[in-house]
Specification:
alpha+beta; 2 domains; about 260 residues; 8 strands; 4-stranded antiparallel sheet; Muramoyl-pentapeptide Carboxypeptidase, domain 2; 10 helices
C-alpha cells in the first residue's frame, strides 16, 4: 500500500468539501449507515474469502528406512502401515496367537491371531466347495524369524532381496494377520500361482472373507515390493470390502486414512 506524504496530509479531502457545500445549501446530510438502519436493512457483511486447503501428504517413496509405524499397538492390527520405511519393534508379538490348524489349514507350526480363525475357516471351506482347495505355508513370523528369512534371501539374491523380502520389523507377517497361501497338496507356491485355479479363486473371492492381496501385480511402485499372489492380509469382511471398493492398494489406503483424507 502507498504511504501518504506529509504534504498530501495537509490537503483537505475533496469528499469533506463536498459535504460541507451541501450543508451550506441546507441539504441534510445523513450517514449511509443511518439510512440503512432506518430502512430495516443492515450493511451487507463482506463475503468470506476461501481459505487455502492443503491436500494430503503424498504417498512416501519406497525408501529403506526404519521409522516406527504410527499405529503399532495390538489393537491397531487393521490400521498398521508396514512397508520399506515403517516398522514394528523387535518385541512386537500378539498375545492371542493360535495354530492355523483350528481353521483346517497349515500345521502346528503356523499361527495366526485368534480372531482371524473363523473367517479363515470359512474361506477354506468355500475354496474347497468351489473345487479350488487352498492351504498355507506361513502365518505369523516374529522379528527374529524375519531376520533369518531376510538374511537367507539376501545371501541368495543379493540386493534384489530388498524387493522380494521385508527386512525385520517391516513384514506384515509380524502382525499375525498375514498369511501366505498355496494350492492344497502343493509343495510350495510361486508367482505363477496367480494363474492357477486356486490363485484365481483367491484373487476373486478372498476379500469376501476379509482377506486382501497386499502386493498385486503391476503395483510394485506403490507397494514397494514385488508381486506376491500368495500373500494376503486379514482386515475383516467390512473393512476389506471398503478397501477393495476404493481401488487402492493396501498401502495407499492405510496411508491416506492416516492422513485423514
Amino acid at each position: 500500500m502507498a504511504r501518504m506524504t506529509r504534504a498530501e496530509a495537509r490537503q483537505p479531502l475533496p469528499r469533506i468539501w463536498f459535504f460541507a457545500a451541501l450543508a451550506a445549501l441546507g441539504v441534510a446530510v445523513v450517514p449511509a449507515g443511518l439510512l440503512l438502519r432506518s430502512s430495516g436493512r443492515e450493511p451487507a457483511a463482506p463475503a468470506p474469502q476461501p481459505s487455502a486447503q492443503r491436500g494430503p501428504a503424498p504417498l512416501p517413496t519406497c525408501a529403506y528406512e526404519d521409522e516406527r509405524a504410527a499405529h503399532r499397538s495390538y489393537d491397531d492390527w487393521d490400521r498398521t502401515l508396514l512397508d520399506t520405511t515403517f516398522r514394528l519393534g523387535r518385541r512386537y508379538e500378539p498375545p492371542d496367537l493360535v495354530p492355523t490348524k483350528r481353521a483346517g489349514l497349515g500345521t502346528d507350526e503356523t499361527s495366526v491371531r485368534e480372531f482371524v480363525i473363523e473367517d479363515l475357516r470359512a474361506l477354506a471351506e468355500a475354496a474347497e466347495a468351489a473345487g479350488n482347495p487352498v492351504d498355507i505355508t506361513w502365518g505369523y513370523r516374529s522379528f527374529q524369524t524375519q531376520e533369518w528369512v531376510f538374511d537367507y534371501w539376501r545371501e541368495k539374491k543379493g540386493d534384489a532381496a530388498f524387493r522380494t523380502a521385508a527386512r525385520p520389523g517391516h513384514s506384515e507377517h509380524q502382525l499375525g494377520t498375514a498369511l501366505d497361501f498355496k494350492s492344497k497338496g502343493a509343495a510350495n507356491v510361486d508367482v505363477g500361482w496367480r494363474y492357477e485355479p486356486a490363485g484365481v479363486w483367491m484373487r476373486e473371492h478372498a476379500w469376501e472373507f476379509g482377506f486382501l492381496e497386499s502386493y498385486p501385480i503391476g503395483k510394485e511402485a506403490l507397494t514397494c515390493y514385488a508381486h506376491e499372489p500368495w500373500h494376503y492380509r486379514y482386515f475383516g469382511r467390512q473393512r476389506a470390502s471398503e478397501i477393495r471398493a476404493s481401488g487402492l492398494t493396501v498401502r495407499e489406503f492405510l496411508w491416506r486414512e492416516a492422513q485423514g483424507s
